[in-house]
């Protein structure tokens, strides 16, 4: 969990500016991504590209704290049931289920992160205060607003978890086989 969290914090250094540009380009549909980048840098400076960094990290760390232990747990259960280690395709399914559960639970943090990234420059939301963002979303749209976009997020994350964790398991098997054959293991 610590390794996954550190990885998420590091990945967010690249992911957040891309996400800020993508989301703003989606909202302001008659502008190109390059125009959004240029406008963000002109109006907010380099820091504008990182608006929502902390809220993204606060979303990703709990997600990782849930996804990876669940993935391992599901693999253990499946392995015990069948009496042998899981195959990569089975690991992929475990990853999809773990990712879907973790993404469903963390969706309010994702909604808050999105609102923070898209907020007007000097607004209260732009400050990045997650509890404040959640309160505003709840007051405006209720519980339903906190779970806006849950189906696409769960589908997207489950597909990603299946691919990422299934491929990881397959590569691990290939590497173990290779290093065993070479006498390194």
UniProtKB/TrEMBL annotation:
This is SLC25A26. It comes from Mytilus coruscus (Sea mussel). It holds the Pfam family Mito_carr. It comes from the Eukaryota. Belongs to the mitochondrial carrier (TC 2.A.29) family. The chain crosses the membrane at residues 145-168. The keyword Transcription regulation does not apply. It is found in: Membrane. It is a multi-pass membrane protein. Keywords: Membrane, Repeat, Transmembrane, Transmembrane helix, Transport. Solcar repeats lie at residues 1-77, 86-174. GO terms for cellular component: membrane.
């Amino acid at each position: 969990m610590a390794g996954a969290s550190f990885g998420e914090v590091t990945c967010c250094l690249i992911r957040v500016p891309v996400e800020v540009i993508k989301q703003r380009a989606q909202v302001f549909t008659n502008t190109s991504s390059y125009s959004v980048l240029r406008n963000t840098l002109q109006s907010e400076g380099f820091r504008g590209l990182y608006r929502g960094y902390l809220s993204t990290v606060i979303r990703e760390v709990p997600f990782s704290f849930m996804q990876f232990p669940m993935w391992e747990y599901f693999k253990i259960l499946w392995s015990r049931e069948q009496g042998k280690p899981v195959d990569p395709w089975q690991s992929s399914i475990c990853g999809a289920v773990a990712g879907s559960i973790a993404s469903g639970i963390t969706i309010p943090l994702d909604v808050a992160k999105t609102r923070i990234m898209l907020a007007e420059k000097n607004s209260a939301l732009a400050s990045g205060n997650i509890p404040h963002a959640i309160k505003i979303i709840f007051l405006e749209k209720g519980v339903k607003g906190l779970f806006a976009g849950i189906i696409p997020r769960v589908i997207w994350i489950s597909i990603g978890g299946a691919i990422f964790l299934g491929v990881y398991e397959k590569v691990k098997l290939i590497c173990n086989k290779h290093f065993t054959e070479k006498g390194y293991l």
